[in-house]
Amino acid sequence: MIFPEKRLLARIVLGPVAAMALVGAVVSCSSDDSSSAGAVAVGSCVEVSDNAADAMKATVGDCSSAKSSYRIVEVGADCAAENAVFNGTVGDAKNSLCLAPNFAEGSCYADAGKRPAEAVACTAPEASFKVVKRIDGEMDELLCGADATQFRTVADPATTFCMAKP
C-alpha cells in the first residue's frame, strides 16, 4: 500500500537538497582558481610570442615543450637581476612576471636585455646564442663542454644551460 503523504514529504525534503547539490556541483566545476589549466602561477611555464617592450604577449604552456622557453619565478614583483621582466598579456589578462629560462637544447635565441629572449632560427641574423647543452638537476657550469662559451644556471628547478654563438 502507498501512503501519499509520505511521497509528498519526500518531495518537499529531498527536492531542495538535490537542487542544492546540483548547484554546488556546477559552481565547483566552473570556478576559476589558480590551480586550473592555463593559470599564471609560480612554477608554470610560458611561451612568449611577442617580446616587444610595449606589446608583450605569452601563453601558459607545458614546461616540457621546447616552445615554453620561460618558467614563472615571481608574479607581480620586482625581478632579480638574473630574471627576465615580462609586462604584458598572458591569454587575455595583463600580468607582470619575473621569468627564468627554460631554454631547449639545440634552440637559438635573440637576446633582448631584461626582456625575455625570443626564440629564433639559428640561421637568423638576430640569433645571439644557441643552447648547446641543457643539464637538468644540476647547477654546475663546469659540466659544460669546450664548445660552450657562456652558461646560465637556474636554482629551481636546478638547471644549467651551456651556450655558444649560433
If you had to describe this structure to a student in words, what would you say it looks like?
- The protein is of the alpha+beta class and 166 residues long.
- It contains 1 helix and 10 strands; from the N terminus they run αββββββββββ.
- It has one helix at 4-30; strands spanning 45-50, 56-61, 70-75, 84-90, 93-101, 108-110, 118-120, 129-136, 150-154, 159-164.
- The longest helix is centred in the first third of the chain and has 27 residues, at 4-30.
- The radius of gyration is 25 Å and the shape is globular.
- The N and C termini lie far apart (87 Å).
In short:
The chain has one helix at about 5-30, and strands at about 45-50, 55-60, 70-75, 85-90, 95-100, 110, 120, 130-135, 150-155, 160-165. It is an alpha+beta fold and about 170 residues long. The strands form two sheets. It has a five-stranded mixed β-barrel with strand order 1-2-4-5-3.
What key phrases describe this protein's structure?
single chain, 166 residues, alpha+beta, 5-stranded mixed barrel, 5-stranded antiparallel sheet, 1 helix, globular
Q: Residue share in helices?
A: 10-25%
The coarse silhouette is globular
> Whole-Å distance between the termini?
87 Å
Strand order of the largest sheet: 1-2-4-5-3
Structural class: alpha+beta
* Unreliable stretches covering 5 or more consecutive residues: 6-11, 13-37
Number of discrete helical segments: 1
Order of helices and strands: HEEEEEEEEEE
How would you sum up the major sheet? Answer: 5 strands, mixed, barrel
Radius of gyration over all CA atoms, rounded? 25 Å
Estimate the strand proportion: 35-45%
Number of strands: 10
**What is the averaged pLDDT score?**
81
